[in-house]
Specification:
The structure is a single chain. The protein is 50% helix and 8% strand. The relative contact order is 0.10. The protein has eight helices and four strands; from the N terminus they run αααβαβααβαβα. By secondary structure, the protein is mainly α.
């Protein structure tokens, strides 16, 4: 901690000399002069002792700070590795989701409406803020050079590179993919693979309104149980590639949205209720309309 420098006690040293001189003038006793000389010596010794003690305290405080800073740096390095691994496990890649779906692995259809990751999609990897935080109320009282050292450690650990970039379809309301068909196709397939591999057709339904060209690109959707789930609130076909079929699917989607909007007025979302996904043109909740979400709105993925 920064401390004000202690001034030399010049006045306290001069005062005994003046008083000793006055006493000698009245008493003519040499002992008064002895006391007069001893007082400044004692003040100088006390001042030197205090300065020496402060230096030792400062050296000890610096050693303690540097030792704790090393421990903090090492701990943050360990926590970064742990957080990095945890984030990768929380949000499996498209390849991992596909492998678990094809091999009926442990991640198949594991995300449920009560999970925080329900309707999460991994858009890629990048740099995100770290979940680890450092709090120190005494930072403003530190010496500048030591505060800079701590600030460097804090800033170096504020972000984490190479972690999944996540979007939640329930919270975002919609997810759009821009670009040419060749560029967008990979992203659309990636999102649909994640959704269908990690979410059960009893809780997520996939519907699509496509042009004939896009219908050929996404032909694999007709084999997915999410497009023909008996739990679906939609009646009839969920995949449309013509004006007539698109009108029928869109009409069914609008009917579900209207029903859930009407019921949302009498339902509240909180500790007593369950969070339900909103209707989605490409990924839709398969819950019955009687268990409507509190914030329904149609979405379009493709």
């Amino acid at each position: 901690m920064e401390k004000e420098p202690q001034p030399f006690p010049l006045l306290a040293m001069i005062t005994p000399l003046l008083l000793g001189g006055a006493m000698f003038a009245f008493t003519q006793s040499p002992i008064s002069l002895l006391f007069c000389l001893l007082s400044p010596v004692m003040l100088i010794g006390n001042f030197a002792t205090t300065k020496s003690r402060d230096k030792r305290r400062l050296a000890k405080a610096i050693a303690t700070f540097e030792s704790r800073l090393e421990v903090l740096t090492a701990r943050l390095a360990t926590e970064r590795v742990t957080e990095f691994d945890l984030r990768l496990k929380e949000s499996p890649s498209t390849q991992e989701a596909h492998e678990h779906a094809m091999n009926r692995g442990p991640l198949l259809w594991t995300r449920r409406p009560e999970h925080w990751s329900f309707l999460n999609v991994r858009l890629g990897i990048g740099t995100m803020n770290s979940r680890n935080t450092i709090k120190d109320s005494s930072r403003g009282d530190m010496l500048p050079e030591f505060q800079e050292k701590l600030t460097e450690v804090v800033e170096a650990n504020q972000t984490l590179d190479g972690v999944p970039l996540i979007d939640n379809l329930y919270d975002s309301g919609a997810l759009g993919i821009a670009g040419s068909p060749v560029q967008a196709m990979g992203s659309i397939n990636s999102i649909l693979v994640q959704l269908t591999a990690l979410h059960s057709p009893a809780e997520l339904v996939v519907a699509s309104l496509l042009t004939p060209r896009w219908s050929r690109e996404l032909e694999w959707l007709k084999w997915m149980p999410h497009t023909s789930s008996p739990h679906s609130p939609l009646e009839g076909s969920h995949l449309a590639d013509s004006a007539a079929s698109a009108s029928a699917v869109l009409s069914g989607i609008e009917g579900v949205v209207e029903a859930r909007l009407a019921q949302a007025k009498t339902q509240r979302r909180g500790a007593m209720g369950k969070r339900m996904p909103r209707s989605n043109a490409a990924a839709r909740s398969a819950r019955a309309p009687t268990r409507a979400p509190s914030r329904p709105s149609p979405r379009s993925c493709c």
